[in-house]
Design goal:
With 172 residues, the protein is an all-alpha fold. The chain has a single domain, classed as Tetracycline Repressor, domain 2, CATH 1.10.357. The protein is 73% helix and 0% strand.
Amino acid sequence: MADLTKAMGINAPSLYGAFGNKEALFAKVLDRYIEGPGGYVKQAMLAPTAAEFVKQLLSASADFFTDPSHPCGCLAINAGLAWNPQSKQVSKQLARRHVTREKLFEHRLRQALKEGDLPEDSDPRDLARYLSVVFQGLAVQASAGANRRDLQKVVDLVLSGWPPSSQKASRF
């Protein structure tokens, strides 16, 4: 907090007066991140097909997570990995946001199923969880030093098997 208040040229009471506490400030930061730099997720949701949604989501994630103009990975995922476990409020906040993102994926995939854009035996909840795991994995890999090309290879593997169906999955 000392570094932040110094960089902003304000004192700690002013910061707390504006945001209440560290957790509330962090929530505002995440909101701005999701609406700003993370806006590519909502943009991908508008894709005309499920396959295009997955392609846009994961390719844009690979681009964003490895962009050298900011720290690699994803703010929310990196924070979850590094956050002090004693701060239960922040941990719960991050968990809620991950669940919300997965529910957005599920909603988009349910829409695709209704439109006949996914095989009838597809389970949108399972597919959303799968995409969420891949999304988070891309972020973690980028944080660990994976480059754009490496992440795109993972994206290409996901796309090569899209759309997965329950029957295909049961063979694994």
